[in-house]
Amino acid sequence: MAGLHRRVLDWLDERFGAGSIEEFLRHKTVPVNRHTIWFYFGGMTLFLFVIQVLTGTLLLLYYRPTANDAFESVQYLVTQVKFGWLIRSVHSWSANLMIFTAFIHMFSVYFLKAYRKPRELTWISGMLLFFIVLGFGFSGYLLPWNTLAFFATKVGTDMARFAPFIGEWVLVFLRGGPEVTGATLTRFFGFHVAVLPGLATLLLAVHLLLVQRLGMSVPPDVERAIAEGRGKPRWMPFFPNFLLRDIIGWYAALGVLGALAAIFPWELGTKADPFGSAPAGIRPEWYFLFMFETLKLLPGKMLFIDGELAGLMLFGLAGALWVAVPFLDYKAGFSRVTRFFTGLGVFAIGYILAMSALALRG
Amino acid sequence: MIPLVAWTICAPVPVRAQDSCVTCHAALEGSLAEPAKLYDGDVHHSAGLGCADCHGGNPKDESMNAMSPAQGFRGAPKKTQIPEFCARCHSNAAFMRRFNPKLRTDQLSEYLTSVHGKRLKQGDTKVAACVDCHSVHNILTVSDPRAAVYPLNVANTCARCHADAGHMKGYNIPANQCALYSESVHAKALAGGDTSAPTCTTCHGNHGATPPGVTSVPNVCGTCHAFNQQLFEKSPHQAAFTKMGLPGCVQCHSNHEIVKPADDWVGVGEGTTCVRCHAKGDPGYAAAQQMAGDIASLKTDYERAEEVLGTAERSGMEVSSAKMELTDANGQLIKARVNVHSFNPAEVRKLTDEGKKISRQAYLSGVGALKERDYRRKGLGVALVFIILAISGLCLKIRQIDSRTGG
Amino acid sequence: MKNLGREEPQEVQPDRRWIDLLLATGVLASIASFLYPALRYIIPPLVSEPTSRSAVAAKVDELKNNSFKIFKFGSQPAILIRTVDGVYKAFSAVCTHLSCTVQYRGDTRQIWCPCHNGIYDLNGRNVSGPPPRPLTAYEAHVQGEDIVVTRSA
């Protein structure tokens, strides 16, 4: 077995220098400290993304992206196709799980200050990936064309209207028309299976390349402890030690997904009726709840600005600040600036949790 | 030339010649000017008739002489004269044929048989005559939604008098019919846009308005509810009610406040309709008990099947065939409810038994679908075992590698 | 945790091979349990298309003139009628009054609901009795040996 493995690698090496890749991988290490647990979340998000691509491709074999057929094709898939229920529920659950792990990955990188020099570009590509992942969630949610999805999309895309100057244009671009119709469905399908995957692949390549080039960051407090002689630097080879642990996590994720699909299958809902009235208590998916609740709580007019416009500007500003944090907190040491940003991060998490809880309650 | 001719032939409103009635009255005040103002909207105006066609006189004469009896002036009729005034044209079939051959011409003869007509003849001017329902000078066709006699508006038109307690004093009939009717399924169906739903005139007649007699009630209701009437007539209740002088359907369903009947009307418990007359020991009591029991147990079986199929469907199982077959059970339940009117428990039982059979089959299909769902969960269990196996293998391997490289 | 530096791997001891065996078994078995559903999934089912938009109601010679058949359309009953002139008509068989299943009566040449005597004409229009709305009309056409009934969006 080992001999065969060696011969294949040698064959590849003679053709495109696989040997240097192999050498590099062999030397890749992961710092071992009390924060190492957070290092698994990037790989987990990547793994769930791969699950999404695989189950999504399988769903593509039966799904039809038109207003007339979408709902029926999902119903057919879930009831007639062998294990269709499994593929569909795994896809829906894994989407939510992936967004959850993306949040954790993003926040853990933030608090461990891994964005500091030289990893600013990794942070930026990661944040762009995060927005793309949210876009995946938003576009995918409409595809089953059920009542909840239809109205959630209506409310969600309505927000675009409030962007200054370009608002109406963005709205029509997103919806494929002034209203949410079958044109919106086809367009969202295009975003979901072609545009966003293309962008995501590009950014992922950049993100992963940078991570390999720059290695794993050691958190500031561990660095300081080592510098002050209070601890020794500890490392683990990525391959096979860290990877095997990664794989355990991935297997556990698969088990969880299977259990969720079999015990809590994702609902079909009722077919969307564009002329029907919205059901009571319509709200977006959980990862948009905090924005939804903020917009609900903002007063209709703030000074001379529209409430919704103010909300959009607030979130735009917050997002821009967040993406720019490597340049704002460029020392990322132990200064007051850094502590401020740590506090900001804690506030952000608290805000998101509080607003989401509020939205769920009322 | 031709366009002008075409315009005059096809123009909807005939070009009116000079009409002195309108010219003078429009310049007056108050109630004297009303007719001139309203008349443009009247259907008679569209037909080309002017003031003089009903009231007589000479519309070409601009002096007060236009209204002299010598010129044929009839004036405004007194209340008691109104029916004959309108009937001068409306009972003349040859005349009416010139305008609308479909219109009936027996309104006056019908009216004379009605309570209103009879009382008017006796000099009671409080009752309704033509203009009270159809209005005057701005009369609209029955199919015009603005008309007071448009099906959706009929109840309110009747209620103008019949719901006015002061107006109805002395007649010895209640004044709450409209209020009761508005609670009924018929009023709600009408409001929902079904203009074939009954309103006051459907059961009482319009021109010949009279409450149906005791023996007529089942016939009147039976014009729509044919099955119920047929079953009732063959049932023991028909003879019994006739002997007691009770109107058939109204006994249980009321006359104006006809609400959606519920299954718990039938039975022997407190508040049921049957125990109003039947007591324990008489055959009617036993019949009610059996019918109520059968219908209730069919409902239970049906709901049980519906529930299990719903659960199966929500779990992602394919149960559309079973669901379709179950709709037949619902059909049996509905037929059983209709058959209550035969008051024959054996007939009802035939239908409920069939319905129960169908429900049980659907229930079994649903249970089968749930078994399939459980098989999936077992499959999941197997996969989980393999996963746990793999994870344990990985943990041990990690320990092995860690210790190996640790030295 | 111990420092995990790089050293030459030792020879795998015989009594440690069972770990490899356990790992291989677990991994292969779990991969099989993932591949099996995926492979069965990509094989198309017997009914190859979502059918709630269309259904095969009958075969071409199945119905005589002036007769009818109740068939399944989605999860609801539908009625296929062959009129006296041989024309096929199809409607939803769910009565608009209280959802009983309607039938076609050759004697009166009308669609009839046995629950409360509701009557529809051969255009599906409610003409008598309690039904408040017409029956939803479907399209029926001949496709080879089959009569296929479809409904629009």
> Biggest protein-protein interface?
B-C, 41 and 40 residues
Question: How many helices of chain A?
Answer: 15
Write out the strand line-up for the largest beta sheet of chain A, numbering strands in chain order: 1-2
Q: How would a crystallographer describe the biggest sheet of chain A?
A: 2 strands, antiparallel
Q: Give the topology string of chain A: H per helix, E per strand.
A: HHEHHHHHHHHEHHEEHHH
- Secondary structure: number of strands of chain A: 4
Question: How many DSSP helices of chain B?
Answer: 21
Order of helices and strands of chain B: HHHHHHHHHHHHHHHHHHHHH
**Which range does the strand content of chain A fall in?**
under 5%
Distance between the amino and carboxyl termini of chain A: 60 Å
Separation of the first and last Cα atoms of chain B: 118 Å
The overall strand count of chain B is 0
CATH H-level superfamily of chain A: Cytochrome Bc1 Complex, Chain C
Low-confidence sequence ranges of chain B: 4-15
Strand content of chain B: under 5%
Roughly how many Å is the radius of gyration of chain A?
23 Å
Structural class by SSE content of chain B:
mainly alpha
Q: What does this protein structure show overall?
A:
The complex is a heterotrimer of chains A (362), B (407) and C (153). Chain A is mostly helical and 362 residues long. Chain A has one domain: Cytochrome Bc1 Complex, Chain C, CATH 1.20.810. Chain A has helices at 2-16, 18-27, 40-60, 70-79, 84-111, 120-142, 147-158, 167-175, 182-214, 220-227, 238-263, 289-297, 307-323, 325-328, 336-361; strands spanning 29-31, 235-237, 301-302, 305-306. In chain A, the strands form 2 sheets. Chain A has a two-stranded antiparallel ribbon. A two-stranded antiparallel sheet of chain A has the order 3-4. In chain A, helix 3 (40-60) packs antiparallel against helix 5 (84-111) and helix 5 packs across helix 11. The N and C termini of chain A lie far apart (60 Å). Chain B is mainly alpha-helical and 407 residues long. Among the domains of chain B are: 140-208, no CATH class; 215-259, no CATH class; 283-370, no CATH class. By secondary structure, chain C is α+β, with helices and mostly antiparallel strands. Chain C folds into 2 domains: 14-43; 54-150, Rieske Iron-sulfur Protein (3-layer Sandwich). Chain C has one helix at residues 17-42; strands at residues 54-59, 67-73, 76-82, 88-92, 103-105, 110-113, 118-120, 126-128, 137-143, 146-150. Chain C has a 6-stranded antiparallel beta sheet, with no helix packed on it. The radius of gyration of chain C is 31 Å and the shape is elongated. Chain C starts with 16 loop residues before the first helix and ends with a strand. The chains are: A mainly alpha (362), B mainly alpha (407), C alpha+beta (153). Chain B binds chain C through residues 189, 192, 194, 196-197, 224-228, 319-321, 323-324, 327-328, 330-331, 334-335, 338, 382-383, 386-394, 396-397, 400, 402, 404-407, and chain C through 1-7, 9-10, 16, 19-20, 22-27, 29-30, 32-34, 72, 74-77, 94, 98-101, 114-117, 129-130, 132.
